[in-house]
Design a protein that fits this description.
Radius of gyration: 15 Å
Number of strands: 9
Oligomer: single chain
CATH superfamily: Methylpurine-DNA glycosylase (MPG)
Distance between the termini: 20 Å
Largest sheet: 9 strands, antiparallel
Strand content: 25-35%
CATH architecture: Roll
CATH topology: 3-methyladenine DNA Glycosylase, Chain A
């Protein structure tokens, strides 16, 4: 199944199923110069619906979070510190408001470095992973061992900071 783009139904599941299963999958990027690069996904974090105070959707439906409320299989990007685009993959059914943050790909650890390597920008917001010609996910060898831990950088989120929703391996 290598080099097979993941189907829509892969994303139409709970974020806590999708996030660990993305480990080992291949993130594929076709750059503006036509070059295609494949990167093994090595680290993800799950953000789950409006009750998760670490999830952007917890603030409600806004122009920034609107895509998170749509059906899974689309891209949610946002800018932090005025310079880093964060790559998130929307999961679940319409209204679920959940997404997986891609925290690491082979050779690049940290979501800011991922965004920079992939040359992301605002134009990726809402792009469909199923038919995008610029960014998609292909099947790959599953991670041999999946480790879990608390998510990073969300101390403001009360009890939600202790959820073991970071996956790596």
């Amino acid at each position: 199944m290598m080099n097979t783009r993941l189907p829509a139904d892969f994303y139409l599941r709970d974020v806590l199923e999708v996030a660990p299963e993305l480990l080992g999958k291949m993130l594929v990027r076709r750059f503006d110069d036509g070059r295609i690069e494949r990167y093994r996904i090595t680290e993800t974090e799950a953000y789950r619906d409006i009750e998760d105070l670490a999830c952007h959707a917890s603030k409600g439906r806004t122009p920034r979070t609107e895509i998170m409320f749509q059906e899974g299989g689309t891209i949610y990007v946002y800018l932090i510190y005025g310079q880093y685009w964060m790559l998130n993959l929307v999961t679940g059914f319409e209204g679920d408001a959940s997404a997986v943050l891609i925290r690491g790909i082979e050779g690049f650890s940290g979501p800011g470095r991922v965004g920079r390597e992939l040359q992301l920008d605002r134009s990726f917001y809402g792009e469909n992973l199923i038919n995008s010609s610029r960014l998609w996910i292909e099947d790959g060898a599953p991670a041999v061992e999946i480790q879990i831990s608390k998510r990073i950088g969300i101390d403001y989120s009360g009890e939600w900071k202790d959820k073991l929703w970071r996956f790596f391996g």
